[in-house]
Amino acid sequence: MSDAVALKPEIDLGAGRFLFKIYTLEALASVGGNLLMFGIFFYMQRRFGWGASKNLPLSSAQGAAYVAGALSANPLSRWIDRQKLLRLIQIAMALIALAGVWTDTPAAIVTLLLAYTLLSAAQWPLLESLISIGANPAGLSRRISIYNLVWSGSGAITVAACGVVIAHAPQGIFLITVFAHLIALLLLTRIRPPSQPSSVAHLHPEPELIPLRAQAKRLSRIALPATFAVIYALGAIMPTLAVIQSTAPAARTLLASVWMISRWFCFVCLGMTVWWHTRPRALLIAAIVIFFAFLGITLIPSLPSMVLWQIMMGIAMGLIYSGSLYFGMVLSDGSTAQNAYHEALIGLGSILGPGCGALAGQLRPGDAHASIIAVAAILWISVLAACAVSLQLRRQ
């Protein structure tokens, strides 16, 4: 039985205004996060001449901070109301970004980035939990689709445009982040949760769909760390690729954001259908596509090839991310703990990808391909693990 048939649309009792404000909050969070966790590598390359050998360790360190922040969200939300906690996080991130405006040494900037990343990771499980309030499985699917469109769309626009800022006023990426968090703080003072019998959704997935959803959750969460291993390794490597270097500085982040735009269109398509809810092995195909796309982007010195492979990679990443978030939430009543686990897997990937790339660069100094092959090895291990799980599921 498909979701389209079995699930009735949720009845929204005044929650629309609340959800709009939460979506606005995530858009603002995505602006700051993408500037200081992706665009920052282009900033470091332009301002301090950093290459992959320095950007990769920075990205890996940010990944470790991201894991710590994501895992702290659930215990903190037990002690402090979620919205109050979000307000405190916005204040702290605004202050950190403001300090970045006046900081002019790489070491100090790295310290600020790690603190910012930790707090940024802590806010996402809280936002994801808030959007699940009062949703049934069909309603949750729609909400997650919108949620994914908002953060990915604002992130793609931010990264595409930040090259202009970095080229003409590098400190502007910190100043824009300050304003984003101040606006979010103001918005949080005006948010009131809709009246619901409980603070989280009671999703109760149909018994006949639970096994398929559980399989899809396992596959997506095997592939999710590898997905973000690619994202953050690419973020560190892309500024040094010959194809990127051949373009004007202001256009480089636009070229590097093609996969983000493609991922956004994938989220649009996933929000219009539920076929992927009952086809777990589509996630395995997506993992394989990411492996070949990463190699195509980094090893083929061709602009059309880079664009094509980024498009394919964005589609595959959109499917894996949506699967991990949706199936984790629908099977756990939208719990903050499950959302924190989802975000921690993202952080794990951002440790492994850049970390292995940095290690390979240290072992093979001067070999431009060493870091790329190391990251590809992480992806291949993920593909093999997903294949093993898929075979195991077939036998059941």
Describe the structure.
This protein is mostly helical and 396 residues long. It has a single domain (14-395), classed as Growth Hormone, Chain: A. Helices cover 79% and strands 0% of the residues. It is built from 16 helices and no strands. It has helices at residues 3-6, 16-37, 39-48, 52-79, 82-101, 106-131, 137-168, 172-188, 210-237, 242-245, 249-256, 258-271, 282-299, 303-330, 336-363, 370-395. α4 runs antiparallel to α15 and α7 (137-168) runs antiparallel to α14. The chain starts with a helix and ends with a helix. The relative contact order is 0.16.
Descriptive keywords:
single chain, disordered N terminus, 16 helices, mainly alpha, Growth Hormone, Chain: A, 396 residues
